[in-house]
Amino acid sequence: MNNIAVQCKGVTKSYGVGETQVRALRGVDLEIKTGEMMMLVGPSGSGKTTLISIIAGVLERDEGECLVFGHDYKHVSHWEKARFRGQNIGFVFQLFNLIPTLSAAENVAAPLLINGLKRSEALERAREILNRVGMGDRTYSLPRELSGGQQQRVAIARAMVHSPKLIVCDEPTSALDHETGHKVMELLHEVVVGVERALVVVTHDSRIFEFANRIAKMDDGHIISVSDSRDFRLN
Questions:
Q1: How do residues 99-155 score in pLDDT, each as one tens digit?
Q2: pTM greater than 0.85
Q3: Structural domain of residue 224, as residue ranges?
Q4: The domain spanning residue 146 has which CATH number?
Q5: If exposure means fewest CB atoms within 10 Å of the residue's CB, which of 11, 68, 114, 173 is most exposed?
Q6: What is the DSSP string of 12-78?
């Protein structure tokens, strides 16, 4: 069985044109295996968020190849791409992207509803996952009634609720205290590691490095090293 979840070869991405052009990715090669948690680290502006956005199908690459479970976003229709992402990808955005008029449970249930699950079943499953991230008492709260850390946990629950094959997280513990962040990472690790799923995490939080199987260091649009988390050195 092929154990490769994500395979990037020579991926490039630029923003703008002419003198204002910014080359965010300069030929990235990266392989992420099923059953592992890969962390991306490096200074701000090194291309980490751009890379995971391409992997998740949020952005299109300029050149190179990016296969997600053998699927290439560039060679399918917009509808097929949306369907694949809805069934297989969970994304935790750094700014949460919760729908302000929906309750916590309704926000979490959204991926299930998009995939055709009955509303009652979707909300029940949403309440279950909210309990697992310590938000069971805020299921009916609107995003504006939640703290930043609580909104982050709702966003994490939404990414996990439909059991996607790939979960992509942008700074998932940035708004969480150490204890809560540790519990959330334990849950993500439990959901992903050991099954045919994968997790890729962009982070500056060295407190969670222990949860990674491997850590890829980025700088100036390149992957400059990939190492086992036990051997990783930030500097």
A1: 999 999 999 999 999 889 999 999 999 999 999 888 999 999 999 999 988 998 899
A2: yes
A3: 4-231
A4: 3.40.50.300
A5: 114
A6: EEEES-GGG-EEEEEEEEEEEETT-EEEEE-STTSSHHHHHHHHTTSS--SEEEEEETTB-GGGS-H
